[in-house]
Every structure is written in structure tokens, then in C-alpha cells.
Fold this sequence. Notes:
The complex is a heterodimer.
Chain A lengths: L2 H12 L5 H10 L15 H14 L9 H4 L1 H12 L2 H22 L8 H17 L7 H14 L2 H6 L2 E2 L7 E5 L6 E2 L4
Helix pairs in contact in A: 1-2, 3-5, 3-6, 3-7, 5-8
Chain B lengths: L1 E11 L3 H12 L4 E4 L29 H6 L26 E2 L30 H4 L1 H5 L9 H15 L1 E2 L13 E2 L6 H13 L6 E2 L33 H11 L3 E4 L2 E9 L4 E9 L5 E11 L3 H9 L24 E2 L2 E7 L5 E4 L6 E3 L16 E8 L13 H8 L5 E10 L7 E9 L5 E6 L4 H20 L3 E7 L37 E3 L14 H20 L4
Parallel strand pairs in B: 1-2, 1-10, 2-7, 3-18, 4-5, 10-20
Antiparallel strand pairs in B: 6-14, 8-9, 9-10, 11-16, 12-16, 12-19, 14-15, 15-16, 17-18
Helix pairs in contact in B: 1-7, 1-11, 5-11
Amino acid sequence: xxxxxxxxxxxxxxxxxxxxxxxxxxxxxxxxxxxxxxxxxxxxxxxxxxxxxxxxxxxxxxxxxxxxxxxxxxxxxxxxxxxxxxxxxxxxxxxxxxxxxxxxxxxxxxxxxxxxxxxxxxxxxxxxxxxxxxxxxxxxxxxxxxxxxxxxxxxxxxxxxxxxxxxxxxxxxxxxxxxxxxxxxxxxxx
Amino acid sequence: xxxxxxxxxxxxxxxxxxxxxxxxxxxxxxxxxxxxxxxxxxxxxxxxxxxxxxxxxxxxxxxxxxxxxxxxxxxxxxxxxxxxxxxxxxxxxxxxxxxxxxxxxxxxxxxxxxxxxxxxxxxxxxxxxxxxxxxxxxxxxxxxxxxxxxxxxxxxxxxxxxxxxxxxxxxxxxxxxxxxxxxxxxxxxxxxxxxxxxxxxxxxxxxxxxxxxxxxxxxxxxxxxxxxxxxxxxxxxxxxxxxxxxxxxxxxxxxxxxxxxxxxxxxxxxxxxxxxxxxxxxxxxxxxxxxxxxxxxxxxxxxxxxxxxxxxxxxxxxxxxxxxxxxxxxxxxxxxxxxxxxxxxxxxxxxxxxxxxxxxxxxxxxxxxxxxxxxxxxxxxxxxxxxxxxxxxxxxxxxxxxxxxxxxxxxxxxxxxxxxxxxxxxxxxxxxxxxxxxxxxxxxxxxxxxxxxxxxxxxxxxxxxxxxxxxxxxxxxxxxxxxxxxxxxxxxxxxxxxxxxxxxxxxxxxxxxxxxxxxxxxxxxxxxxxxxxxxxxxxxxxxxxxxxxxxxxxxxxxxxxx
Lengths: 190, 562
């Protein structure tokens, strides 16, 4: 049973919004224990799958360096869209996701979750070219989504504490030190 | 309505000035009651987010739609985020009305013990005679009844207790204080300083003078460079009522602090022409109470102190208590800011810094100091800083995959920003009044605030944007750009005036001791007393004026003059 089927099935079984423990139980039953699952707040399943598929390529998991999947960034995006965007912005965001999903199908010939990493890389590289040529005043949806993913990534516990130079209590201010390629200093500021 | 026991003094408000009034009154042996309209907020224990890392906030610090609905005004504050939200008033619960045409007045408030001393910017600059003589010299507003010499010893007195880090520079118009060791400029700031000072004989740059402890001071811990001051500091490393003045007052055994007490009005004894007590509502029970005292210090914040006086009108003072002059509510001022310039600074890629310094740089006023500017009067100063914004400030990064992940780990390019803080003139028709037809949750009139900035402010604002850009260009900055976020009066959070000091009882509310001209046992020592606005941050001046006023009130009490 693949992930999407599992969600559909779980939703059918419960007849209610999906709860995480229940979903986990369903998934562990089909050896998908590494997959995170959550009750979405606003995005539909296809939209979540689109985010999961591309975020896995944008911020991949590597040994010793967590990726989008490990950090549950799709769930994070879902929560931010639900709580932090206005209704109008939400509508634009979900439309943007639907369009992105459609573009992936059109260029790769299959849906985002089945397109495969190679096709997604090709698609995203083209998307990057377009998006970063656009003026920041008219931020393309792709770049908006990516900013949210990157924000979730950079403020996650795992990334802050293992990929950046995180100090909860620095204790001192060194005003002028050599920069020799070290990771960026971060603290508890938001 | 019950009447309660007599205190020697009642202080309304527990923020920066209320805390100082309480400390000074209590240390002189006076039984003092502090009435705070907001909730109790314990030092350390009350700072619920002081150690919260970003990932523990559901929205990683960002504002939600619910925040924008409940805090439509407060949520615009630079220091408002998921970690400080609980320290700002809900605008929906504390409404006011504002200027109909033009930018809304932004009244920024924190209703809890300690008030805005918890969330303040901590910048502390002495005023000078350039400020105290300004009104007299150019004719805007009335003359201050004091000069620098009157307040100088009181600056020293409060600074020694507060603990202010800074560097002595020997400037006549930005006098040195009693400083703890300064924070340090970073490499790029030092470069900019050098470039400006060698190109502009009339300008200099110093490190921000802030009420953050670089060394332990009076039993309080030193700054840990977390740069999380706005959430409350568990080390007591910046000055607040909770960390400093209230504990000192408490120690005397003379302090009674009552929270959740919203003052409604002052009780006037017509026969003796004295304020006999304070009427307030216990916001938890809704009960109305009066407590009596020999003297009253209004330290409720600029607009709330004036609100109390306006709402205490009676047949002797029909336009507001102690308002025979008619000046009460008028001459509202702020500082204009949120405009300046920024640039990228190249050539320092091999330099970095470590830690979160809780301040930036200060570039003191240079306009109309010695040479009159042809287009505007008064002046402005700059705050600012240089940094290498690393994550999470640089979320807009091109690239995907491992390359993107590696680039996100590194600090970005250096940039430097100047933010102008400009003086606003005292205009009679920048005023507040009561809305008797729009009541608040306690059934009391809400405040109507009418305030616009004028031509002198607009011309000055252009100048501070352009001069910031020119200085950054001079210092070799790239992509130099001015910026101007809309100027909303009030948003400097330095609201001043509306119960100004002055020499003449016919044109001012308070005399040179912050004592009401009309009523001898009434003192007002918060920002409402200010006669002009200067361009430097006002809090340490409020503190000095408060300590000075208490000293005077105490001697007058002993002479049986009050």
C-alpha cells in the first residue's frame, strides 16, 4: 500500500479527520514507519503530496543532515498557510500548489509523487531559472513556497542544533572575528 | 464604594517612571501605594518565553491572522512576535479613536506590572541645552522651565542605579553619562565610523548607549548576549521596573503594589485645593474604590496620565483636572522614524562576529547644532547596525538540493542600515480628548487622538534619508537604497507632551518640579510632562525628572507645603 492509499484508507476508516496516532498505526502496519503523517488543517491530500514530493528534492535528506521529510515540512507549511495567511492569500496559495502540480504532470507526464527525482530535478531547475529572474516585488508562487520551506527548515531544532552554529546563551559578543567558512551563528531570536 | 487607609503617596503606573517614583518615595520612608492597571508579572517567573527556542513556537515566531485581528495596531511593532505577543495590549480590548485623514495614530501599550519597561528599546541618551533651549530659541512651544544644569545631577543619580553601557565622547549636545563599559562595534561598523568621521567634520558615530549591563551591577547579572530582551531577561541584565526599581522599593518595607487596578480619576478636595485620593476599578471584581494619600504621582504613561486628568474634570476644573491653562491634552509629540538607508558593504567577507549584541550604533545629531539648516529646524540622530544576516533571515535563496542546503548554512553578505530618529515640533492641534460616547470595557470614555506630522517633519525626513544614503556611499557601500516605511505618529513609542511643563501657569500644566501649577500635591513625571521632544530617546530623562520631582515633593511635604 503506498502512502496516498494509506491516507485515503485511513480517512475512510475513521470517517473523520485523520488523527496522527491512528494514521501511524495504519502506516506501521504497511512498513511505512519512516513516513510522517498528520491531520492536515487546510491543504488537501494532493497539495500535501505535491509539497512532499518537491520539498524532498529541494531539501533532501542526507546522512547527518536532515531533509524536508525528516522535519515534517509539509505539515509545517500546512499550519503556516492555515494560521498565518489571509483567506485571499490562502486561496492564492492553494491555487499556486494546484498549478504547480499540474505543471509537473504536464512536463513529466506523471503526478508529483510518481514523477521520480530525476524528472523533478529537471522541472525544479527550470522553475528556479524563471522564479529568480522575476522581480522580488512580484514574487512567483514557487519562490513563496520555497521560502516557507526554507524558513521551516532553518528554524527546526535539528537544523539549528546540527547544521548551524546555534547558541541559546552565547555569553559574550566577539565583535570582529575571522570568517573561515564556519556555519552561521544563530540564537533563539525569531 | 469603599474608602481605604491613607498612604503617604500613591503612584499611578508601575512602568519606567512609576517604578522610579515608587523606589524614591519608599526610600525616603513614605508609605507608598502603586496602582497598576494590568496583571501581575513576576520578575523571571513571569518571563514565560525567555528561553523558548524558535522551533517551540507553533509558527516559529511569526504573526498569525488571529494576531492581526486581535492586535491590529500592536502587531506592527518591531518587537511584536510569537515570543512577546502576551506583553502587548489587545487592541480589541483597549480601543481608541484616531486621526480620520492621514496615517492612524499608533498607540503602543503594555498593560502589566512594569509596563513597557519590559519591552523598551533601552536606549539612554542625555538631553542637553540644545534641547532645553530649543523652544525658546525658535519659538515653537513654550520655554522649558529647566536647563541641563538642573537635571544633570539627576541624570548621574539615576544612571548609577540603572547601569548604562556607553562610551564617553565629550560631545556638548549629547552629554556623557555614568557609563558601564561599552558594547563593541563590529568590523564593518568600525569601518563606517572611520569613513564618516574622516569625511564629515561635523559627524561622529558611537556605540549605542543602552540600559544593558556589560558587567554585573547592583546585584543584577550581566548581559548574556542573547538579544532576547523583549521577552524579559531572567538575568535582570537590562533595566526594568521588575529587575531594578520595584525590588528596591520593596526592600524598604514601604511599598504596596496593587495590580488589576485601573484608575478612573483623581479625587479633588476643593476646600483645600488638593488631590485627596485616587478612584480606581478593581478590574477583576469590577468594584470601584477610593484610596487616599497625601501626594499623588501620575506615572501612567503619557496618554494615560492625561486621560486620567481629563476624566477627573469637576466644576472647579471643567476641562480636566489641573487644567486652568487649557494646555492639557495638547502639544502631543513623538519621534518620527522608520526611514533611512541601507547598503551592502563589500571587502569584509573574511570577518564575522559571535553573539547577539543587544544594541547597535548611534550617530548623534549634526543638523542645526552649530550652523542653521536652510530648510528645517531641530534635528535628528541615527540608530543602526551592520550585520551578516545568516539564516533564518535569508530564506530567499536560489538553488535546490545539497547546494541549497550548504548555502543556507553560511552567513550572507554584510549590510549596514541607518534609521533616522527625528524631532517633532509641539503643535497645539496635535491633541487628545475624551470620547464620552465611546466607552471602554469598564464603562469609561475612550481616548480620541488627533496627531499629524507637518512640513518641518517632512523636510527633515527627506534629509535624514538622503544623508544616510550619502554617508553609506561615502563609506563605499554598494546597492545603497533609501527606504521609508509610512510614518505613523505614535509609532516611535516616544509619545510626549499633553501635560507639559512650563514657566507660565497660563500656558502649561506643570511647573519645573513636575508639580501641577494648579494643585500642589499632584505630580506628573512621565512623558506627558515634556515641553519639547528632542531627537534622542526620552526614557532616561523621565527617570531623572521623576527622581528629582520626588526629592522636591519630599522636601515640600516636610515643610508642610503639600
